[in-house]
Each structure stands twice: as C-alpha cells, then as structure tokens.
Amino acid sequence: MTKVELQGVGKRYSARGRPGTEVVAVDDVSIDIASGEIHAVIGYSGAGKSTLLRLVNGLERATSGSILVDGVDITALSEAKLRSVRSRIGMIFQQFNLFHSRTVAKNVEYPLVVAGTPRPEREARVAELLSFVGLTGHAGSHIEQLSGGQKQRVGIARALATSPGLILADEATSALDPETSREVLALLTKINRDLGVTILLITHEMDVVREIAHRVTVMEGGKAVEQGEVFDVFSNPQTDTTRRFVSTALPTEPDPAHLRALREKHRGKLIALTFRDGGADQPIVFQTLADRGVGVNIVHGGITDVGGRTFGKLTLELIGEGVQVEHAIAALAQQTELEVLA
Q1: Alpha helices in the chain (DSSP H)
Q2: What mean pLDDT value characterizes the chain?
C-alpha cells in the first residue's frame, strides 16, 4: 500500500500566445491520501484535476509545493530516479491507451518487458492478471475484437502488472455505458479490497464518487474547495460547486422551478425531510403522521446508500386540518431534519 501527500502543490504554465502571462492550473492544493484508500478528485472541466494527476506521477513537474509518495518527494527527484517511482504506480486511462497492434496478453505483458522481468515470470503474471480481471480466454485476442469494458479490463490488468502500491485512474469509466461502468467500478473496489492498492481516482461524475470512494476532494479553478469523507460531503456540502455535484447523484430537494410546479399541483403543506443513519426512518415518520390523522404523498426525492450509510431527502405533501398538520410537523421536527417548503 502507498501513501500520497500533496503539500501546497501548484502548477503554472506560460499562456500560449501571450508572453509574460501565466495560467494557474493547480493552486496551492494539499491532500493526504492514506494507504489503502480510494480517494476521488472531482471537478468540472478546467478545474485542474487531470493536471493534478499528472503531477502525482511526475509526467509534469509541480511549480511549487511537494508531492510525497511513501515519504519520497518526487518533485526533487531526477528523471532517472523518478522512473523508479513510476514503476510502482499504475495508470488507467479514459481512452484505454492500448497497443492495437498487440494481443491482449502482449498489452498486459508490456510493463513487465520494460522492467526486464524474465519470460516465464511474465507469462505466469499475465495469466494471473487476466484471470483476476475476468479475461481468461482472451489472451490471444486483438484489441479491436474487444468491447469497451473489456478494453478497460485490459488496461486495468496492465496497470497491475508490476504489482503497484498506487493506481491513478483518469476518468476510468467516462467512455463506458452505465452497466459496464458499474462492472469496472466493482473491479476497482476488488483491487482496493483484495490487493490493498491505494487508488487516486479523477472523475467528473459524483455517482462514481458515491459508489466506491472513501474520501473526496472537490476542485474548482485549480483549488481544492472542499474535502472530506464521502458521506460527510454528500450529506452536508459546504460549497455551491459541491452542492451542484451532489444534486446530480442524490435525490434532494426540488429546485425553485420544480418547487413552484409542485406547489401548483399539490395543495397540501410541503415539507422536506432529511434521512440519515442514526435518525428516524420512513416507517417512524409515516406512523407519526398517521397517529395525528395526517395523510401524506411523497412528491420528490429518495433514499440511497452513500459509503455504506443511508442518506437522502424526501419532499412530502401533508394533507389534513391545519392544527393537525402543525402538530405533526412539530413532532417530526423532533425526529429528523425538517424544512417547511410551502
């Protein structure tokens, strides 16, 4: 397992066609990635997340700050010593980056050839990895014969060839359909769980973060604007950027336009309830309403799993006499987080 520490990392470029002007791609970013952790970095296009990934494996040099991989500051290494560090880091790419002129086995074998591993060991390792990623029987296949999901499995097997302690995954599921994406994410989880490999995952999809990450860093404009355990960030986002991301992956409160439509359609009192581990669950809420003679319709939202924990929001229409509804709201407010919407 590999630990990664980014301390005040920055990356500046000279602006093309504008002498004397700099572009700040990464701005004073600090992240601690524990050994054996799946850490996601999420951001919109231009946030600096892919540049950050290239800095971690030394494909680009940081302008400022330090990047420690198992305590070794790679920003201070010569190119020769940096190659040694890279041999312990696996890379998975959005567009697979496979050799189309080579078979599946030869693609997986390539890092071992570069490392000078003897042929018998190479062949045994390739067979082991193809079995691990579910491609036994495809060793002699050519890349163009494979589906997108199979190609990514080849890429993952290749990334594992030299038994790295760290894998860097750059938008590993963005080119795949939803079902295949889930299969690839399950494989990454298996790698982390069974092999103890640390994974730094770059993505713009909050569903990916929710599915497999332990911790997440949200980037905007080159800065890390929010960090934390995935459940904490999902359940209590602190920035507008994070809230926008969370809304794409979780059923939350309706936006203003949707809320106006709900108010026109539903004449009862609208409330939003937050559900999380340790709080009231749906049966308790509905029993509380029934005990007070208040009817209910679920008009928006849902409950889901975030990092193995329950979280979600429901917008409810409460139907009944005014006093009964007010008493019910007061009782619910003692059980869970509640907001009166209308």
Answers
A1: 49-56, 79-86, 104-114, 119-132, 148-160, 178-195, 206-212, 230-235, 240-249, 256-265, 282-291, 322-333
A2: 91
